[in-house]
Amino acid sequence: MSILSIESLFVRYGGITALNGVSVEVRQGETVLLIGSNGAGKSSLINAVTGLVSTSGGRILFEGRDLAGIPSAARSRLGIGYSPEGRRVFRSLTVRENVLSSTLGLSRAAAEENFAWACSIFPLLAERAGQPANQLSGGEQQIVALARAVSTLPKLLLLDEPFLGLAPVWIDRISDAIRELQRRGTTILMTEQMARPALKLVDRAYVMRGGEVRRSGDVAEIREEALAEEYL
Amino acid sequence: MAPDRHRDFWLDLWGMALLLPLLAMPLLFKDPFILSLTYQFAIGVAASLSVYVMLRMGLLSFTVPAFMAVGGYAAAMLAKSGVTEIMALMLASFVLPMIFAVPLGLLVLKLKGLYFIFITFIFNEILQLIIFETPKLTGGSDGVVGVPAATFLGADLGVPWRQVFATVAVCLIASVIAFAASHRYRAEFTSIEENETLAESLGVAVWKYRMIGYIVSAGVAGLAGLALVNMLGTAHPSSFASWSVNNYIAYVFVGGRGTVLGVVVGSYLLIYMTNVFNAYAHLSAGLFGLLLIAVMMAAPGGVVGTAVKLFGGFRADKGDAPRPAPAGGAA
Questions:
Q1: Which residues of B touch A165 (CB under 8 A)?
Q2: In the predicted model, is pLDDT for residue B319 greater than 60?
Q3: Is B19 in CB contact (< 8 Å) with chain A?
């Protein structure tokens, strides 16, 4: 069953076409990768799903519901969790406040319960709960951004370049966290330029270039084909 | 200098604590200059906190004099009609500006940056125009004169020391409201100030919290307006002139926009120095400007912000720095 269905999506920034009729499907419980170099349109697609950029054509269906006209904050409440590229934690807030910032619409008890759930996946949160986010390393900030995205128990988790700028040890830790989320049944759509670690995590992949999907298929297919030359 | 929630909370509490001595001033001193300074401090802090609440979301609102006018005129008209009980006046001065803030907020809270500043500034001019063009209701250019002294449970507050005490008390309540709101919604306001787009994408209803802040800011300004009318015994358009918001904004930035203590220190410093400069009548405006330039150049984070930065650095030098992040992280 498809949880996210993107049909012939167009995104334009002025005269520049960032997405040119892209179609992507994510099924319940699977992890899908959008892979491509800078400017391929990966983040534009994620931002279109979150409602941060306007689309100029096509449809985005989430659980069969067209997201057109639904504001970004409301999409989050529908069950779309989002971890942006480059972490972007709230620097003045503590780790705990950062994680809870995505649960502000929930009751205190529900927010606490979700925070505890996030802590069970990311033990670091409990250790650093009271520490301002700007005192964390890049890897730790990524953990906070991930925890913030999953603390609403989303039906679909969007991860935009979770490995960007991280040292190998943190890529391994983030990968472990993603595996744990998968084990708990979270559906994930992620983008990544670093194909090698990302392909180990996903079920299917879409190769994007110039705002279009050039190839899609199971990880094994993608890995075997020309992609290896370009991205691995 | 890293932000620190507990430190900021204590600095805010210190700011509130610094307001308490103002209550004792009318009990201890009879000197008109000290009493005048006292109520100027109280009103200045309350009005500045109205600016501060919006600044917590990164919005520089120029509507403060307009909301002060709504609160002040509401109290003056109510008192003229025979309702002088200070609690009733406070209720009117607090609630009416908040009601006005709802439609205004619907108009302006989707705007950002210069557009927001410009439109909120225009509101003041529109309100001034309305006041001048509705003499039957507002007294026009004469204002509402001969406002009877407020009472508290039947006791006359017209005696000078009681008048100052009541003014300070009203401003203290306004300050507590601003303090409570900025702490209740700290996470929401901070996330909006730091990255509104990200906050929105995480499900923070940005517009809703902006509206809450705007309504609270209006109510706080309304109480400051009541305090001003209570002291002057009149509600006059010049008391709520558009340019007066420049002073309130200056108090916030000179003291430090990050904490209530900054607002209080900035208000005390600039109001006191204004009174000192008034002795040099023809030079006072220039001296005030020089002071602003000097403080902002020497302490760009405001007096309190810069002091905290220096003190924090001093603590860090002594080995009291925050725990460093473990190795392994990048970026």
A1: 330-331
A2: no
A3: no
User: pLDDT value at position B262?
Assistant: 95
Residues B173, B177, B180, B182, Cα dihedral to 10°: -140
Confidence of residue B61 (pLDDT cuts 50, 70, 90): very high
What does the DSSP assignment read for B167-219? HHHHHHHHHHHHHHHHHHTHHHHHHHHH-HHHHHHTT--HHHHHHHHHHHHHH
Chain B CB contacts of A170 under 8 Å are 328-330
**Strand A156-160 relative to strand A187-192, pairing:** parallel
> Would an 8 Å CB–CB cutoff place A153 in contact with chain B?
no
Any chain B CB within 8 A of the CB of A52? yes
How would residue B313 be classed by pLDDT, with cut points 50, 70 and 90?
low
ipTM of the complex in this document = 0.78
Residue of B212, B220, B235, B27 whose CA lies nearest to B109:
B212
pLDDT at residue B122, as a whole number = 93
B320 touches chain A (CB under 8 A): no
In chain B, domain spans: 5-241
Write the residue in A73, A130, A167 that is nearest to B200 by C-beta: A73
Distance CA B122, CA B126 (A): 6
- CA gap A75, A40 in Å, rounded: 24
Task: Identify from B201, B209, B257 which residue to disrupt to test chain A contact, counting A C-beta atoms within 10 A and taking the largest count.
Answer: B201
pTM of the model: 0.84
Is A31 at the interface with chain B, CB within 8 A?
no
Task: Say which DSSP state A68 is in.
Answer: T
Name the residue in chain B with its Cα closest to that of A50: B201
The answer, for B184 touching chain A at a CB cutoff of 8 Å, is: no
Residue A151 gets which letter from DSSP? T
Nearest to A140 among B191, B198, B329 (CB): B329
- Residue-level pLDDT at A155: 92
In tens, the pLDDT along A32-77 reads 999 988 889 999 999 999 999 999 999 999 999 999 999 988 998 8
For residue A199, the one-letter residue type is: L
In this prediction, what percent of chain B has a pLDDT beyond 90?
74
**Is A135's CB within 8 Å of B325's CB?**
yes
Mean local confidence (pLDDT), B26-31: 93
Q: What is the per-residue pLDDT across A174-217, written as a single tens digit (0 to 9) for each?
A: 899 899 889 888 999 999 988 888 888 999 999 999 999 998 98
Q: Which residue has the tokens 């990048």?
A: B330
Residues of A in contact with B206 (CB under 8 A): 73
Q: CB distance from B326 to chain A under 8 Å?
A: yes
**Which percentage of chain A shows pLDDT scores above 70?**
96
Q: Which residue has the tokens 């994680």?
A: A99
State the Cα–Cα distance between residues A11 and A120, nearest whole angstrom: 38
**By C-alpha distance, which of A49, A44, A5 is closest to A23?**
A5
Listed by number, the residues of chain B in 85-114 with a beta carbon closer than 8 Å to a beta carbon of chain A are: none
